[in-house]
Amino acid sequence: MAYIDGFVIAAPTANKEKFLEHARHMDSIFIEFGALRVMEAWGDDVPDGKLTDFKRAVQAKDDETVVFSWVEWPDKATRDAAMEKFRNDPRMNDPANNPAPFDGKRMIFGGFVPALELKK
Q1: Domain that holds residue 79
Q2: How many domains is the chain partitioned into structurally?
Q3: 53-104: per-residue pLDDT in tens?
Q4: What is the CATH number of the domain that holds 68?
Q5: Rounded to an integer, what distance in angstroms lies between the CA atom of residue 70 and that of residue 72?
Q6: Which of 31, 45, 46, 69 lies 20 to 30 Å from 16, alpha-carbon distance?
């Protein structure tokens, strides 16, 4: 059964291209390690909520855009093996060559088991 990793971050709006360059590099590693698909979605219609919302979840500032991303894996075992590879891969542990163009401390993320899927 598929497994999904989801991420929400606040990226500087002025650095969209720098973010996408960083994402291309990192996402290609996800694919190399067995991901089926990676999606990076740049916020377009992210409203303020009454109690909570995406912006508050990542403490987005006025000059930042919320990015919603996910990685689709064929199963949790593939994902877990990939995460172990990430921890030991020098491409992941060398921020000097590919620094994150956002504050990773404000990123929220988690792993999810699909519960329902509808297709056309």
Answers
A1: 3-112
A2: 1
A3: 999 999 999 999 999 999 999 999 999 999 999 888 888 766 666 678 899 8
A4: 3.30.70.100
A5: 7
A6: 31
